Each structure stands twice: as structure tokens, then as C-alpha cells.
Amino acid sequence: MYVLIPAFEPGPRLPALVAALRRADPDLEIVVVDDGSGPVFAPVFDASGDAGARVVTHSANRGKGAALKTGLAHIHTRDPDADVVTADADGQHTPSDVVRIAHALRTDAASARSALVLGVRAFDGTVPLRSRLGNAAARGLFRLATGRRLSDTQTGLRGIPSDRIPWALRIPGEGFEYEQRMLLRLAPDLVATHEVPIDTVYLDRNASSHFRPVRDSLRVLLPVLLFAASSLAAFAVDTVALLVLQALTGWLVPSIIAARVLSATANFVVNRRVVFRARGGPMRGQAVRYGVLALALLASNIAWMSFLTDNGLALLPAKVVTEAVLFILSYGVQRSLVFPRPDAGSPAPPPRSGGVDELSLLRPGSPGSSPVTPTRSSS
Fold first, then answer.
1. Cβ proximity of 301 and 280 under 8 Å
2. Residues of the chain with pLDDT under 50
3. For the chain, which terminal residue's Cβ has fewer other Cβ atoms within 10 angstroms, N or C?
4. Backbone dihedral region of 131: left (phi > 0), alpha (psi from -120 to 50 degrees) or beta?
5. What is the pLDDT of residue 357?
6. What is the spatial distance between Cα 90 and Cα 210, in angstroms, rounded to a whole number?
């Protein structure tokens, strides 16, 4: 079992955290990734190595996601069967909580269960207002994006079973968005989660954190916001067309169909070009899949609106309720099936020219090994 700690310009608590983890569970091996902190912070990493950690160094700052993937590749190359607990370097994860996540991974392994273990905070007690509001907003945005409720979408304390490390290495992202994208891939990749309560700890009002919950969450969830804007525009077109056609003809079902054909055509063009940026994919296949989805949504739309209006709800409120119910379903299906990303669920791509192959960092003579070098080891 390994504990992986990515660190950029860490404070003096890092060596004490390493030592405390070694005392709390001597079976844990600690890997610290120095994400290009520079020579000023070398004493902190030297002390962490002296406390029992293996330190791996980026020659330049590359982001938390890159540091996590470097550490995961390092561990998986050395010990492919090892589970990994990821923890932050700022002291907000107590040694007892880290051990608790490690224990959950061992329990899952004993029962042949493979799940991403999340250390979730209750955000009670003395929590900075910025962090409380930011995390609440991030949870809401995540639920909007996926339809899935998680207690803490910003936790860096996670347990990754060994069989999920290759999956984690395939997820794109170099900065804080990497951890968000990992959670966004849970449902499409059928990865289970296991939540474990942990303490809510904020030191010096979270002054050492480089994470900005709302800004970083908005950046990774930008497709959701664009999809919402696209859907709102289609909703406006659909609603106006429905009201006009129904007023002119008095026929509900034909008016629904005609309005939906008009709005769906415009929505397909916008989603393909702007929201999911799938212009490079085969348009015919995308159009067929979108058409099948549109027919399914249309059937659902007719069923819901007929039911609601037959039970006394006015046409416009019935329209609003129906569209709200179908919004999340439509986003998930379009993202995963209609306009799938080329990297979704695909094997790990070969290294880019001039880049680093994360899985070859420890291979002697690897041409991409120079930017990432082990600097100190406890072994």
C-alpha cells in the first residue's frame, strides 16, 4: 500500500506528515512528487526523504494532475498490484484519516470489490466561508453535470485500487481539473465509489491551498454550462413554436412534433460545433445517434406533457417541468454516445513528441525520463 502526496511549494508540515504516517502504519510506503517547487523548497523535500518518503521531482511545475499521474506511474511500474492513497501536502488530511482510507481499500480488496474510495468531509464546525460556499457550488455543478450526488467532490484524499490505476492514468488533465475529470468519468466507465467520512480540517484559513473551488469547477464543467445555454436556446425555439402552432391548429401532439424537429435541428448543430466540439467526427453517425435520442426524448416529452396536462397542469408549466426532467438525461447521453470524446475509455495514448511517457519514467535509458527524476529514497 502506497500513499502518494503531490506537492508544490509545500510548507514545513510535509516532513512531519510523512513521519506521522510512517508511525501510524509502518506498512505504508510514501511517495512525494515535487512538482517543480524549485531549490528554495529543497530542504522540505530533503527532510521528507529523511522521514521515510521516496521523493520524485518534476524539473518544472506541471500541475497537480501531472504530479498525481507521475506518482501513479512510478508506483504502478514498481508494484503493479499496489493500491494507492492520494493525500494533500498541506496538512489538511490527518494521518488517522489517511490510514482510514488505506483500511477501506484493504477491506474492499478482501471482498473482491474495486471502488474509488473518497474521503468525504462534512464541512461542519469552523470552515472558511470561501471554502464552504465554493465546495457547495462545486457539488451542485457536479450533480448538474452527472445527475450523481457525491458528498465531497473536492476531496484530494482518495483511495485508488491497483486495477484502477491504468484507468486513472488515461484521464486527461494536468492541473486541478484532473481530479474533477476523474469523478466525471465514474459513471461512463462504470467505476463504483466508496465514501468514508473524514475530519474537516482547515489550517490558517486554508491559506496554503492552490485550489479555487468555483473557478476550477467552472472550468472543468464549462461543457455543462454551454450545454445548458444551448438547451435554453432550443427550449425557447421549441416553446415559441409550440405555442404558435398549437394556437393556430389546436392540435397538441402534431404541434409538439413540429416544434421539436425545428429546435432539435438547431440544437444538433450548436452542440456538435460548440458544446462537444465533435466536428472531427463522422457527422452522419452523429446525426443518426442524435436522431434516435431525439425520438426517444420526443416520446418521453409527449408522454410527460400529455400526463401533466390531462391532470390539470397548464401547457406552459407542463413544458417547463418536462424539459427539466429530460435535461440531465439528454446531456449524459449526448456526451457519452452521440458526441463521444476520442479519449473516453480508450487505451492510453503514446507519448507526445518531446513529452514524458508516464509509465516509462523508471525504465533505464528512457528518452523521456529527464524531466522527472527520483531525488531521494528511504530504501
1. no
2. 203-210, 343-372, 374-379
3. C
4. alpha
5. 37
6. 10
CA 114 to chain CA centroid, Å, is: 18
Alpha helix stretches (DSSP H) within 116-251: 129-146, 165-170, 177-184, 213-220, 222-249
pLDDT at 10: 93
Q: What are the angstrom distances between the C-alpha of 140 and each of 145, 176, 227, 331? A: 9, 18, 16, 16
Which pLDDT score, from 0 to 100, does residue 108 have? 94
How far apart are the C-alpha atoms of 116 and 186, rounded to whole Å? 9
Q: What number of CA atoms fall less than 13 Å from residue 156's CA on the CB side?
A: 26
Contact partners, residue 346, CB within 8 Å, separation at least 6: 170
Q: How many CB atoms lie within 10 A of CB 235?
A: 18
Is 113 in contact with 192 (CB distance < 8 Å)?
yes
* Phi, psi of 261, rounded to the nearest 5 degrees: -60, -45
**Partners of residue 32 on adjacent β-strands:** 5, 55
Residues 6+ apart with CB under 8 A from 89: 5, 6, 7, 8, 10, 11, 13, 14, 17, 32
The pLDDT score that the predictor gives to residue 129 is 53
How far is Cα of residue 77 from the mean position of the Cα atoms in its chain?
24
d(CA 324, CA 333): 15
The rounded distance, in Å, linking the Cα atoms of 15 and 280 is: 48
HEC letters along 288-321: HHHHHHHHHHHHHHHHHHHHHHHCCCCHHHHHHH
- pLDDT value at residue 349: 38
> Do residues 339 and 345 lie in contact, with contact meaning Cβ atoms separated by under 8 Å?
no
